[in-house]
Amino acid sequence: MSHLPAELLRDLSEIVGPAGLINDEAAMQAYLSDWRNAYRGRAALVVRPASAGEVAAVVRACHQAGVALVPQGGNTGLCGGSIPDDSGHQVVLSLTRLTRIRDVDAGNETITVEAGVVLQQVQEAAAAVGRQFPLSLGAEGSCTIGGNLATNAGGTAVLRYGNMRDLTLGVEVVLPDGRLWNGLRGLRKDNTGYDLKHLFIGSEGTLGIITAAVLKLYPAVRSRTTAWVALPSPQAAVALIGRMRALCGDRLTGFELMSRQSVAFVLRHVPGCSDPFADEHPWYVLIELSDTLPEAPLNAMLESGLGAAFEEGEALDAVVAGSEAQVAALWKLREGISEAQNHEGPSLKHDISVPVSSIAAFIAQADERLQQAFPGVRIVCYGHVGDGNLHYNISKPVGSEDAPFKAQAEAIMHLIYDVTAAFAGSISAEHGLGQAKREAARRYKDPLELELMRSLKQTLDPAGLMNPGKLL
């Protein structure tokens, strides 16, 4: 039975119609846990508005009734940011019916899309007009633009194109009181005061609900080369990316680091994957160069950079993809890591960032301290070297039980975050805080920074009804 006032139920039903209201317990279950089943909650109702106007009306009605809302997109996050608490009093507001691509302006290199559009659909719409939308991540077939904006998503192309914040020119937002702010400006220059869109990008639905956005498009890639390179150490990866950047400039669009443990899990658990080399190596990088020219000399650039790396001992072996199928196979090794690790039992995921120059020292120190404190844990370290973002994940020792390992999760997290802080890093590079890292943020963020964040929250959402219990 819903905990909502009868008047609010009637109002919401009138706003969204029968197709937009889910109050059956069984039907709501898909909205009440994340895709890993790591977070689970309860809700009074799931509301699925089909337009920005309906979102505004829903928010206004809930605001007047004093009912908290939990915005939700594709529900592919890793920090529980889109899952309600267990009170059963909150309303989940799903944006998956906001699926219109409102405009594609090839001349202005922009695309305007609603929050429920799946990332892959934006990529396809850009390709249809000879452009690209470069955000790329493992969940691109199911994550939504609204979720990407709410968490300031990163992915594998940040090195060249930046995070979601860098790819956004304007947003449309429903404020906590139900007013609709139309900030859908396709301008690259607009120096008329505070750039308000940045308040909402990365705010995880705690300040307002993004219903649409104007995104940047880029010229289509017409030539590409991809290589899988074996390395002796993370320090060799830092040296190699510096070498490739100096040689290739913005043509360097991907540089992904993976430990042998990461790749071993993929080879063990992901069907259709094979080791590119006959011998095992301690570390690997996946390098991708791209250009808008059809016949750009990318292979020559790659060979020049790798040749120098071999001479300096930075590279141990390398293979260059000779076909699109081989490119896909190499990327499958990288993209399969998160899924593969789940087959090894509980996975403690830590999405950290440090200065690029500190990557090797961070890994060495964190590895040593973890093995001393928790002997036998398996460290699955991989990530985006170009922006200092490492996914530093931990699996239980071979043959150990799940429960004792899970009981160590907080201690392991604090150890990793203490090392991260020692290198002036961040405890969340691209996944956000959600409910998973909310308390950790109090320990590792500057108190004044948190005070300013709370002040913004109090100004925009004084009743505390927008995604309560997340981020702050």
Overall description:
Its cofactor is FAD. Residues 39-220 form the FAD-binding PCMH-type domain. One of its GO terms (biological process) is respiratory electron transport chain. With 472 residues, the protein is an alpha+beta fold. It has 3 domains: 6-94, Uridine Diphospho-n-acetylenolpyruvylglucosamine Reductase, domain 2; 101-219, Uridine Diphospho-n-acetylenolpyruvylglucosamine Reductase, domain 3 (2-Layer Sandwich); 223-423, Alpha-Beta Plaits, CATH 3.30.70. It contains 17 helices and 19 strands. The strands form 4 sheets. Strands 12, 13, 14, 15, 16, 17, 18 and 19 form an 8-stranded antiparallel beta sheet that branches. Strands 5-6-10-8-9 form a 5-stranded antiparallel beta sheet. A 4-stranded mixed beta sheet has the order 1-2-4-3. Helix 1 (6-16) packs antiparallel against helix 3 and helix 13 packs antiparallel against helix 15. The radius of gyration is 23 Å and the shape is globular.
Short description:
This protein is an alpha+beta fold and 472 residues long. 35% of the residues lie in helices and 20% in strands.
Total separate domains: 3
* Poorly predicted parts: none
What name is given to the CATH topology of the largest domain?
A: Alpha-Beta Plaits
Cα-to-Cα separation, first versus last residue: 30 Å
- Rg of Cα set: 23 Å
For the largest beta-sheet, the strand count, sense and barrel status come to: 8 strands, antiparallel
Mean pLDDT: 96
Helix content: 25-40%
Please work out how many helical segments DSSP would assign.
Answer: 17
Briefly note the structural class of the backbone: alpha+beta
Please report the first level of CATH classification, the CATH class of the largest domain.
Alpha Beta
